[in-house]
Amino acid sequence: MDPLLFAEQSFRRFKFQLAEYTDHNYIIDEVFHGSMMVEFKTSSITEEMFWKYVRQTLEITLTDVEMFKMLRESYLVNVDVESYVRKIRAAGYMTCLCSNNFIARIRELEKEFAFLKHFDTKIFSYDIGVLKHNIKP
User: Fold this and answer.
1) Digits of tens for pLDDT over the chain (137 positions)?
2) d(Cα 116, Cα 106) in Å, to the nearest integer?
3) Which of 18, 60, 65, 113 sits at a 20 to 30 Å CA gap from 91?
4) Would you say the pTM of this structure is higher than 0.85?
5) Which residues, listed in sequence order, are joined to residue 97 by a DSSP beta bridge?
């Protein structure tokens, strides 16, 4: 079973759709996986700064609202994982979500899927300022 709550191809679908709005689609992966994204995920830069960077770098005119809608609509729930989380909570176990996701994605997916209610504890890299697998000094 894939351990991700959302289907792995979901973010790829978002980037593929975004590519239709830019002549710079060859750098989309760098934009969303490079150093600016790391800074965004750890709250070193603001959400406004990150999306401005995206628009400027890709030379797109989409608004935040349009990009966020595209983001929400690109995602699919991994029903096996969702079912598993529900079952273990129903059995009395506590659940925890640890995520490197960026704040806009969490917020928009919560609007679309209301998934956070399935977790007793939620730890986000943007809240603690460090990514999983990194040791903060």
Assistant:
1) 557 888 889 999 999 999 999 999 899 999 999 999 999 999 999 999 999 999 999 999 999 999 999 999 999 999 999 999 999 999 999 999 999 999 999 999 999 999 999 999 999 999 999 888 776 65
2) 9
3) 113
4) yes
5) 122
